[in-house]
Design goal:
The protein is α+β, with helices and mostly antiparallel strands. The protein folds into 2 domains: 168 residues, GAF domain (Beta-Lactamase, 2-Layer Sandwich), CATH 3.30.450.40; 39 residues. It is built from 7 helices and 6 strands. It has a 6-stranded antiparallel sheet with strand order 3-2-1-6-5-4, with helices on both faces. A hairpin with a 5-residue loop joins β5 and β6. α1 packs antiparallel against α2, α1 runs parallel beside α6 and α2 runs antiparallel to α6. The longest helix has 72 residues. It is elongated, with a radius of gyration of 32 Å. The termini are far apart.
Length: 220
């Protein structure tokens, strides 16, 4: 095994071990951080598509070299992420600002290079992407970069599906609880109406009997 292959395998094992026990936000943060550290780039991020009229990303984790920055949303039109959305995988080793002049965030981040891959769920749906940027040109090690992107994208797809299932189950439980409360109220209201109907039917006769049987009635 060559040193290059050994390093690639080591990096993949490092990522898998680092994210294996993580779930939710911790998982996505670990993925973003390991992506940047293993590829030796400044920025790493994981994003999920939002259902909207135009492709929009909700960032689940963004590592910025020494810390995580708060999650945010952005439109992918005019960004390198739009080409990942269309093709599934893209690597721009240099001159990223010149290629996407409309993306002002690239200027803010002082980005020079970019790489990204689509996150595809078990149904074949594009649900987001994994991306990385650097302030210098990328190393010419594209096969290793692709391998690492694919590992993180596959794990991210599983976690996004898991989180979506949890949200759907929680939403369903809330709906069932509300439905049960409504049924209980309807049952109670129905019981009360039946009691009222019984009273309306028997109250006149009951009052008449009470009047007849009451000694006070005769005194008066």
């Amino acid at each position: 095994m060559t040193n290059h292959n050994f390093e690639s395998e080591y990096n993949l094992k490092l990522i898998v071990a680092g994210i294996a026990s993580k779930i939710g936000e911790d998982f996505f943060q670990a993925c973003a951080k390991y992506l940047a550290q293993v590829l030796q780039i400044k920025y790493g991020f994981i994003g999920e598509f939002i259902d909207s009229t135009r492709p929009q990303i909700k960032v689940l984790a963004f590592w910025s070299g020494d810390r995580f920055i708060p999650n945010f949303k952005y439109d992918i039109e005019g960004t390198p992420c739009s080409t990942v959305y269309e093709t599934g995988l893209q690597i721009y080793p240099h001159s990223i600002q010149q290629l996407f002049p409309e993306d002002r965030d690239l200027l803010t981040l002082q980005a020079e290079s970019y790489l990204g891959i689509s996150i595809v769920d078990s149904h074949g749906k594009n649900v987001g992407h994994v991306g990385g940027l650097d302030t210098k040109p990328l190393k010419h090690d594209y096969e290793q970069q692709k391998s690492i992107l694919k590992v993180i994208a596959t794990r991210s797809a599983a976690e996004i599906e898991h989180q979506s299932s949890k949200k759907a189950l929680k939403k369903q439980n809330i709906y069932l609880q509300r439905t049960l409360k409504k049924l209980k109220r309807l049952k109670l209201n129905s019981f009360r109406r039946k009691k009222c109907l019984v009273w309306e039917k028997w109250l006149p006769e009951l009052l008449m009997r009470l009047i007849i049987l009451s000694p006070l009635f005769w005194v008066i």
